[in-house]
Amino acid sequence: MRNCVVSSRRSASTALCALRRSNHGVGAVNNVRAEASSSSLNRGDEVTTQQRQGQGSSGSGSGGGGRSIEELKSEMKKLQEQIHAAHLQAHLQEQRVAEALENLEDVDERSRSLEASLFDAAAEASVAPAVEEEKKAHADLRSDLSWPKELVDFWHPVEFSKNVTEEPTTFDILNFPLAVFRNGDTGVAECRIDEASALASTSQCQKQKQRQGGIQIKEKDGLVWVWLSEKEAPEDIPGFTVPPEPFHEDSKFTIHAELVIDVDVEHGLLMENLLDLAHAPFTHTQTFAKGWSIPDLVKFKTSKLLGGNWEPYPIDMSFEPPYMVLSTIGLMQPGKLEEGARAAACQNHLHQLHVCLPSSKGTRLLYRMSLDFMDFMLYVPFAKKIWEAMAAQVLGEDLRLVQGQEDRLKRGGDTWANPVPYDKLAVRYRKWRNSLHCETKRSEAEEALREMSAGEMLSPEENDGFSSKRSRSLE
C-alpha cells in the first residue's frame, strides 16, 4: 500500500514537472490533464486495495504496521489539492499561450500594414508626375455649379413671342428678375426689372434700372431677346434659332411645339446631357430612343463651328453660344429612326432647339420642336398637351442622370474625370465656357473648333484629356 501512495506522489510530481515544461505550448497542458486523470484512477485503485487489506487485517486479527484509512484519505485529499493546483496552472498556461498568439497576430497585422503603406508611398511617388500632368490637361474641363459672369455679355432669348401679352410674364435669368410684356398701345415687347422679386435689390439690378432706355429688347425668329450686359450691345442677333432649310423642296419645317419648362438642375449639366446622345440607348428606353441599338463606338463628325454629326444615328447636332443646342434627327417613318443613314438621306426630319437659361430654379428651358412631316398634327385638338407630355417624359428620363451628376458635384466629385471620344462636343462646350474669363483662351478654343477635322473628332487627343474609360455616372 505504501508503494501505491509513493507511486501516486510520483505521478503527481511528474505531472507538475510536465506542467512546468509546458510554458511554451498547449500540448503540455493536455499531458498534465491526462496524467492527472491517470493519477486519480490509480488513487481510486489504491483506496480499494487498502480497504480490502484493512478488512482482511481486522478479520484475521493481525495489526502489523499498516496505515489507517483516515491517513490514506488525508493523503488523497492532499493529492487532489495538488491536482487542482495543477489544473489552475494549466489554465494559466493556456491563457498565456492564447495571449502570445494574439500578440503575434497583431505584430503580423502591423507588419502587413507597414509594408502596404511603404508600397503605396512608393507607388504614389512614381505616379505623382503623371497625376500632375493629368490635372493640367483637365484644368479647363472642370465642372461647377456656378456660371461665369461673362455669360451676361450675350443676347439672351428669354421667351417665345407668342407667349408675350400685355400681362407681364415674370422669371429670372443670371440673377436678373425680369418682367416681359407687350405695350398695350404699340404692341411692342418690353422688358423691365421685376420689382416684386427679392433679387431686385441687387446692385446689378439697380444699375439696369438706372440705364437710359431700360433693358434693350428685340424680337427675332419667334423669340424675344434681351441684352443685360453693361457693355454695348451688338447690332446683330444670331440667326441660328430659325428652323433649318428644308431637306426637300416640298417638305418645309413647321413649328409644332414651343414649350417653357423650369428644370431643377444646373444649366451647364443639362447642356452636357443634351450634347451627349451616346446615353440615349441606355436612358431613353421608353421614349425617342426605344429600340435603338447600342453602338460599339459612337462616331462624331464636325459639320460646322461647335457642331457635327453622330454616327451610326442620323442625328446632326451643334452648340451655339452661350447655351443653345440644336439637333436634327432623320426618320424614315414617323417614330422610327433609320440607323446607318445620314440625316439628309432620311425621308422625314425632327428639328429641336433647346435654350438652357441659367436661373435661380436651375434652368429655364425653352424648347421648340419642328417637323417637315405630319402637318395634320397642327389641327389636332390638344396636340400641345401631347407634345408637353412627351417632352416631360424625355426630361424625366434625363433628370435621373443629371441630378445624380449635380449631387456628385455638391459632394466634391468630378463629372469629367475620364472623358471619352463621344463626349467631344460636350467637352468643347465645357472648355469654351471655362475660357470666357480670358479673351485669348476663348479665341483659341473657338479657333481650334473651327479647324477641327473629322479625324480629330473621332480619335482621342491628349490635349482633350480623353481616355478609354467613361466615368460620367451616379457615383
Quick synopsis:
The chain has 475 residues and is α+β, with helices and mostly antiparallel strands. It has helices at 2-20, 27-60, 69-137, 203-210, 267-274, 280-283, 383-410, 424-434, 439-450, 454-458, and strands at residues 155-160, 169-173, 176-182, 189-193, 216-220, 223-227, 254-263, 299-304, 307-311, 315-320, 324-333, 336-337, 348-359, 362-371.
Plain-language structure description:
This protein is α+β, with helices and mostly antiparallel strands and 475 residues long. Helix content is 42%, strand content 20%. The protein has ten helices and 14 strands. The chain has helices at residues 2-20, 27-60, 69-137, 203-210, 267-274, 280-283, 383-410, 424-434, 439-450, 454-458; strands at residues 155-160, 169-173, 176-182, 189-193, 216-220, 223-227, 254-263, 299-304, 307-311, 315-320, 324-333, 336-337, 348-359, 362-371. Strands 7, 8, 9, 10, 11, 12, 13 and 14 form an eight-stranded antiparallel sheet that branches. Strands 1-6-5 form a three-stranded antiparallel sheet, with no helix packed on it. Helix 1 packs antiparallel against helix 2 (27-60), helix 1 (2-20) runs parallel beside helix 3 and helix 5 (267-274) runs antiparallel to helix 8 (424-434). The relative contact order is 0.09.
Task: List strands and helices in order, with pairings.
Blueprint (H helix, E strand, L loop, with lengths): L1 H19 L6 H34 L8 H69 L17 E6 L8 E5 L2 E7 L6 E5 L9 H8 L5 E5 L2 E5 L26 E10 L3 H8 L5 H4 L15 E6 L2 E5 L3 E6 L3 E10 L2 E2 L10 E12 L2 E10 L11 H28 L13 H11 L4 H12 L3 H5 L17
Helix pairs in contact: 1-2, 1-3, 2-3, 5-8, 8-9
